[in-house]
Structure formats: C-alpha cells, structure tokens
Design a protein that fits this description.
161 residues; 4 helices; 7-stranded antiparallel β-sheet; Alpha-D-Glucose-1,6-Bisphosphate, Chain A, domain 4; 47% strand; 7 strands
C-alpha cells in the first residue's frame, strides 16, 4: 500500500476550498489527467451526504476508469472518497480544510492506493506520484481562477513594485 499526505496553506477560506473539491463534476475542467467524470448516484441533502462517481484518468498510455463513493461533510469541511470498482485493490483520498487565524486555510490532503496488478502497480506508481504532487496545485490554481478578482491581482502586483 502506498500513501502520501500533504499540508498546504492557501489564501482562501476553508469553505471555499471545500466547495471547490466537493464539486466533483468540474474536475475534467482543471485536473489535467482527469478526462471524464460522471456522477452515477447522488444522496446529498443540504450539501451533505454521499455520491458515487466514475472517473476516467489518462496519462500517456495509462487510461483507467474507476468508481468511488464520495462522502461530503460541509459541517466539518471534510471529503472522503473510497474506491469501489476498477483497477485497484484499494484507493482512498481524504481532504480536510481548516481556517487559519491570520486568514486563509490549511488543506490536508491524503491519498492511499494499491493496484490489483503488480505490473500495473510498478508501472503506474510513478504516474500516481506525479499526480499526487499536482493534485493540490490543480485545486489551488482553480481557486485562484474562481476566487481572485482581476482587480485584486492588479493591486497585489502594484504593491510588489
């Protein structure tokens, strides 16, 4: 079993980052290796609950579809995805978002995976390592695109001069 964890501070509120990660249907718009995502079952009430989603990931010759059960808890700013079908023995991702006293939030992202095939495990492990490193960056980039106004970007550039 391979696992990785990253802690990242960003200038956005925990709720903003939570909402961005919880919006799984937009992943193909900004996650480079996510080529398709379809929610096949949704049991969400007032933003909390579970959904089942099929994701297709592709990187060079590697292309796989897998299904996950995603649990969304806006009250605690927590999102957990557990693999249910596809090329893995196990896949679990965990997102936690905590507001920081000085503003912004800390993103705690954890991933754990094990492929069914030893050949696929050795071949795809490096791809997953790269994907892990880029995962938080993709969401932070998306947050900047959605939550940073052009005026505030210009003001920040002026302050640096």
């Amino acid at each position: 079993m391979t696992s990785r964890r990253s802690l990242t501070e960003v200038p956005f509120a925990a709720r903003q980052m939570f909402d961005l990660v919880a919006d799984v249907e937009t992943y193909p718009d900004f996650i480079p290796w996510c080529v398709a995502l379809r929610v096949v079952q949704r049991d969400i009430d007032d933003g909390a609950g579970t959904l089942h989603a099929d994701m297709v990931v592709a990187y060079k010759v590697f292309r796989e579809r897998f299904r996950s059960k995603v649990t969304i808890d806006p009250e605690s700013h927590a999102i957990d995805a557990h693999y249910t079908e596809g090329p893995f023995d196990a896949l679990h991702t965990r997102w936690r978002f905590a507001d920081l006293p000085a503003g912004g939030c800390e993103i705690d992202f954890f991933i754990e995976f094990q492929f069914k095939s030893l050949l696929l495990q050795s071949t795809a492990r490096m791809v997953f390592e790269r994907a892990f490193l880029r995962m938080t960056d993709a969401f932070v980039g998306r947050a900047h695109a959605l939550y940073t106004s052009p005026a505030s970007v210009g003001e920040a550039a002026q302050q640096k001069l």
